[in-house]
Design a protein that fits this description.
Rossmann fold; 9 helices; globular; binds uridine-5'-diphosphate
Length: 313
Amino acid sequence: MKVLIAGGAGFIGSYLCEHYCGEGAEVICLDNLITGSRENIVSLLNRKNFTFLETNVSQPFPKLPKEINFIFNLASPASPVDYYRYPLETLRVGSAGTENLLELARKEDAFFVLASTSEIYGDPKVHPQKEDYWGNVNPNGPRSVYDESKRYAEAVTAAYRRKYGLKIAISRIFNTYGPRLRPADGRVVSNFISQALAGTPVTVYGDGSQTRSLCYVSDLVTGLARLAGKANAVDNVVVNLGNAREITILELAKTVIFLCRSRSEIVFQPLPEDDPARRCPDISQAKAVLDWEPMVSLEEGLRKTISWFEGGK
Ligand code: UDP
């Protein structure tokens, strides 16, 4: 089995590469390393069944091995701080990058899994978010570069299915955390843990009443692999993948401070523009179709992540 993972040196992508290498699949990882890193895949680089190509999927591809069975498209900056920094790259990878990968899937007759995002729901007016909700997105605000690029990626993926009969699945990934989050990537879990361990103030944006639902990365990767594993049964599925436990950002800050045994104080800073007020997936479809639900509790996942940030395992 050959699996191509675009964005394979990123946070989630690197775990997916490990998963398939461990299964004995031949894994081809594509990444231009603007937000991913070699460090994430260092344990795989010497493996015979792993190939890393430093390439930008928004550009024409280098020569690739033939007979690819599965293509995962996880290539994109995904942290708000990253896509504010790389707005045009984010738009291009969701549009041109996704189209290039879809063309490849068409030539190879591969099953195509798009990593979409809870961001396509924008600042949701429906709660929790079900897959049939179309979202509430500002089309030209600062987050639009990510939201609209992923919405386009969904549209073009669905169009390839309609026009060419390509087999596809769309996963909408909610907030995910774990070891290998870049300490400076600006996301909430990495910021809070870095700050709490350093004893510096923990920065809550707004009043901290906004909510998120945090999924530990191993759970998320199991869900993605399950999606591809059910390729014949799930063609054309759109499915939320995330943890359905909702927590306010203020409560998260207090939990991280407690688990880090930190003396950090909490400081309140301005809420970024268009920051979604509530976010929580309805995962009944993932349970029914994939027989999947997260297994790792927030406390357990945070402990593992804190230990990695501390330089442990
Ligand atoms: N957030 C925060 N302090 C930080 C970083 C983020 O309060 O240092 C908040 C942010 O405003 C948002 C939530 O935490 O409400 C999640 O932010 P993140 O950047 O991780 O991802 P998002 O879900 O917004 O894409």
